[in-house]
Amino acid sequence: MRIDWVVALIIFLMFAAWAFSYYTQLNSGEIVPKAESAFLAGKMISEYMMVPASSTPASFSSASAAQDVTLWVYMNWTADTQNTTRVAASPWSGGSLPCMISGDRLYWKANLTSGDNRFFIEQALADSPPNCDQAIAETDENQAVLWADEGRSVFTGLKNAQLCATMNDSYRDMKSEIGVNFDFSVLIQESGSEYSCGLPLPRTARDIFVFPVSGALFDGGQVNVSVRLW
Fold this sequence. Notes:
The chain has 230 residues and is an alpha+beta fold. It folds into 3 domains: 1-31; 33-49 and 157-229; 52-153, no CATH class. The chain is built from 4 helices and 12 strands; from the N terminus they run H-H-E-E-E-E-E-E-E-E-H-H-E-E-E-E. The chain has helices spanning 3-27, 34-48, 157-169, 171-178, and strands at residues 51-62, 66-74, 86-88, 99-102, 105-112, 115-124, 145-146, 150-154, 184-190, 193-198, 209-216, 222-229. Strands 1, 3, 6, 7 and 8 form a 5-stranded antiparallel beta sheet that branches. Strand 4 and strand 5 (105-112) form a beta hairpin. The longest helix has 25 residues, at 3-27. The two termini are 50 Å apart.
């Protein structure tokens, strides 16, 4: 038998054995693509850093245009969301109209157009100094109508900073609480600043996966969060 046929036979048998082994592990669930696992871990870490928030439309019909009108609604607050409450002219804008909380009422000042006027009352489950702390004369006139709220998860600048500090001080505890197996570092870019937390990036040759998330901060401005895993 010629030597090239012998070599070819040996290579074929080795490939067949490897293919059988791979097929067996694949069917037993032992092979999970590392990139897919990193994607899921990155998603878990980014979601851990976010807080639940809601935006509730409030409408008021005006017979004519008017300036600096006081509107109000009844609210059902919790202690954890009251400080973050704001009234915006457009949803998730990060801004707020002048507003005040008094008991179970929320008052705000607005300029009205003739016809339907819509505003957005937004809250987040986060630490915050009071947003609606202006002085507005109370009135029983001009009650607005509340509609169904839209919920979403958002980043806040204050929680980003708090979590980053905790991540640096108690990395192993936070990693265990999130429930991921990858080591990770988080790069946060917001309002012209940039900082990172977690472990330093490895200096040796390693596969590093990046899970990026971008959006508006609840407290105003934009944020880019990059979870880097290895």
